[in-house]
Amino acid sequence: MHRTVMIAEYLRPYAQWRIARPDPADDCRNARAAIGLIDAASYVGQLDDRDRVIVRLAVAGCFAKGRFDPGPEGEALVRHWHYDDAVGGAADLLDGLAACAERAASAERAASHGQAASDGQVASDERAVSDERAVSDERAVSGEQAVSDEQARRAAAFSLH
After folding, report:
1. In which residue ranges is the amino acid composition biased (Basic and acidic residues) (predicted)?
2. Dihedrals phi, psi of 69, to nearest 5 degrees
3. Cα torsion at 26, 32, 36, 41 (round to 10°)?
């Protein structure tokens, strides 16, 4: 399935959700938000999977699960798109989704790198403990050897007398 189709399929249920939420006191905000999302779904359907914004979304991992997932920040952006005001068009929504996804991917990489560093520290600590044990074992063996050598000398000296 084309990535642009996945994005459009992601946006349409949010538009339907806004349409299904009529509120006489909302000053048509739900209708405005629904229209903005329908417009964005139509716009993305006209794009090619090689368009820069689609590639940005792909690189950020939005299609990793076989469907479009912009992450929690991206979902919040979609849920509130054009609700309070109608600033920005469909291209702005996609750019915003890409920016959200890139931030999430960057944070995930940083956390993963931190975990890897932590794992590396644990491995380093384990190696240090292992090295200390090896040195201790060598000293013990060396000490045992020295005791054994001393006992052999005493036994030899005793037998000579």
Report:
1. 124-141
2. -140, 105
3. 80
At 45-58, the pLDDT tens digits run: 999 999 999 999 99
Token pair for 68: 């479009």
Domain limits, the chain: 3-110
pLDDT digit string, tens, across residues 101-160: 999 999 988 988 776 555 555 455 555 545 555 545 555 445 545 545 555 555 444 444
Task: Give the distance from CA 124 to its chain's centroid.
Answer: 25
Q: Are 91 and 49 in contact (CB under 8 A)?
A: no
Can you tell me whether residue 35 is helix, strand or coil? Answer: helix
Burial class of residue 51 (count of CB atoms within 10 Å of its CB; 0-12, 13-18, 19+): middle
Terminal-residue alpha carbon distance, the chain: 97
Instruction: Yes or no: say if 84 and 29 are a contact pair by the CB < 8 Å rule.
Output: yes
Of 76, 112, 105, 72, nearest to 93 by C-alpha is: 76
Q: How far is CA 109 from the centre of its chain?
A: 6
Residue 81's SS3 state is coil
Residue whose tokens read 């399929």 = 9
Query: At residue 72, what is the residue type?
Result: P
